[in-house]
Amino acid sequence: MHPILVSIALGLTAAAANVFGGAIIVQKNWDRRFLNYFVALGAGFMLATALVEMVPESLTLRGRNAGFLILLGYLIIHFFEHTVTPHFHFGEETHHDEFAHTHKGYSVLVGLIIHTFFDGIAIASGFIVSDWLGWIIFTAVFLHKIPEGFTVSSVMLAGGSSRRTAWGASVILGAATVAGVMTMALFRHEIAFGLPLSAGVTIYVAASDLVPEVNKEPGVRMALLVFVGVVFLFVLDTFFH
Ligand SMILES: [Zn+2]
Ligand SMILES: [Zn+2]
User: Fold this and answer.
1) Nearest residue to 112 (alpha-carbon basis) of 142, 143, 149
2) What is the arithmetic mean of pLDDT over 135-149?
3) Cα gap 16→111, rounded to integer Å
4) Which residues, by Cβ under 5 Å, contact ligand 1, an ion?
């Protein structure tokens, strides 16, 4: 199949995971403990994918200059998720005092729209380079998509939005992911720009969004799962690359 078609199909799959994550919190009774496992596994797998696969490939495509774009990708997410947004973290939003004004929930939504747009850029960039890179970036993105949808819907509920609007926010994140895939498909000649930028975004999501959530968990179990995520990449590399 054509790499662009594959990345669109997988972009839609990732989007569906966002929507599923949103449904978990909107349907109150669903068990959500398994989300923490996805966060920890995803943190390790994403970090390894970004540093061992995306960064070296970016340097090959763009030379030393890639470093600036990787840094820029990292800082873009720091700006939209944590600078213009007063309060944001992955996981369930339990700090209701922070969301006395509904607009704060929308600022988190905007930050996550930018982030998920780059999730889509990352998937399509991967497939433009090779099937292997595309599949592992998709896996890295997929692992944090359910917690991501859960997070945005949880924030919207904390901000006083209706269940319908809260779930709608996870649908918007899914749509932004697909929009990222489409954008990279249209500008596929800009791969030397798209891959390093999305590598910086991936490093941010892994190390600055997900790892802090892992570190909040008591005990060693979650911390160890990060290593399992890293090993998972090397196992895939051994058998499928
Ligand atoms: Zn909070
Ligand atoms: Zn994401």
Assistant:
1) 149
2) 96
3) 19
4) 93, 95
pTM of the model: 0.95
Please compute the mean of the pLDDT values over residues 140-165 and round it to a whole number: 94
Closest ligand relative to 158 C-alpha = 1
CB of 62 within 8 A of CB of 196?
yes
**How many angstroms is it from 93 CA to the middle of ligand 2?**
17
Contacts of 214 (CB under 8 A, 6+ apart): 39, 40, 43, 222, 223, 225, 226
* C-alpha radius of gyration, the chain, whole number: 17
DSSP 113-161: HHHHHHHHHHHHHHHHH-HHHHHHHHHHHHHHHHHHHHHHHHHHHHTT-
Ligand that comes closest to the CA of residue 117: 2
Please list all protein residues whose beta carbon sits less than 5 angstroms from ligand 2, which is an ion.
Answer: 119, 148
- Tell me, what's the pLDDT at 224? 96
Q: How far apart are the two ends of the chain, measured CA to CA in Å? A: 18
Rounded distance between C-alpha atoms, residue 149 and residue 146, angstroms:
5
| CA of 156 relative to ligand 1 center, distance in Å | 11
- Ligand 2 center from residue 240 Cα (angstroms): 24
Residues 6+ apart with CB under 8 A from 194: 121, 124, 125, 128, 184, 187
Q: Determine the pLDDT at residue 75.
A: 98
Q: Which tens digits make up the pLDDT trace of 101-129?
A: 767 889 999 999 999 999 999 999 999 99
